[in-house]
Each structure stands twice: as C-alpha cells, then as structure tokens.
Model the fold of this input.
Amino acid sequence: QVQLVESGGGLVQAGGSLRLSCAASGRPRQNYTLGWFRQAREKKREFVAGIDWSGTATHYAHSAVGRATISRDNAKNTVYLQMNSLKPEDTAVYYCASGWETVWADPNVEYAMDHWGKGTLVTVSS
Done:
C-alpha cells in the first residue's frame, strides 16, 4: 500500500507562486510515476503535470505549460509542483497520484493511477 500526503497549498494573490509537495510512503511499485491533478468546485478532476521515475520525462497540461514545473526527489520519495503566475482559475484542490508506466497524454489518465493523496487546497485571489 502507498500513502501520498500533499502539502504547500494556501491562499495566494494572482500573479504569485506556490510550491506543492507530495511525500510518498509505503511500498510503491518499482519505477513508479507521479503526477498532479486538480479539481475545481463543480468541475471534473483534470491532469496538471506528470513525471516518470527518473525525473527526466515530464508532461504538462496545456494550461500548465510555461507556468508549472514538476520535479521529484527519489531519495526523499517526494514530488514537487512549482506553480508561477497563478490565476484565479487555478483555484482548486490539488491531488498527487502515483502510477506505473503512465501515459500522461491519455485523456483518461486519472483512471490509470494507482494511489491518490487527499489533496491540498490552492486558492488564488484576484
């Protein structure tokens, strides 16, 4: 079983930055992938960014390109999401998820993830 715990959410003004963290514990699959998803109020959960085991391959949603950077530290079993130039429409609960051989470009990628954290709320004020 794998436990994922997100942190780093909070209230930020538009144009500001945040760095989210997600710590993994337990017994993940070898070479597990990690990704960030988000769900705004009354909207479906959507993919934000994903990263492979080595940290060399990343993938971003169109909305995140140029504003977000995903990275991971396998020594700490932690994945990060640095978000810059935040907009009010970025307000959402951000979830971390783990998977294996994940095809991030798959529009149904969230259903391929094995484990999920409980999320951290990001609120961007205008």
In short: The mean pLDDT is 95. Residues 31 and 54 are 8 Å apart (CA to CA). The longest strand covers residues 18-26. DSSP finds no helices and eleven strands in the chain.
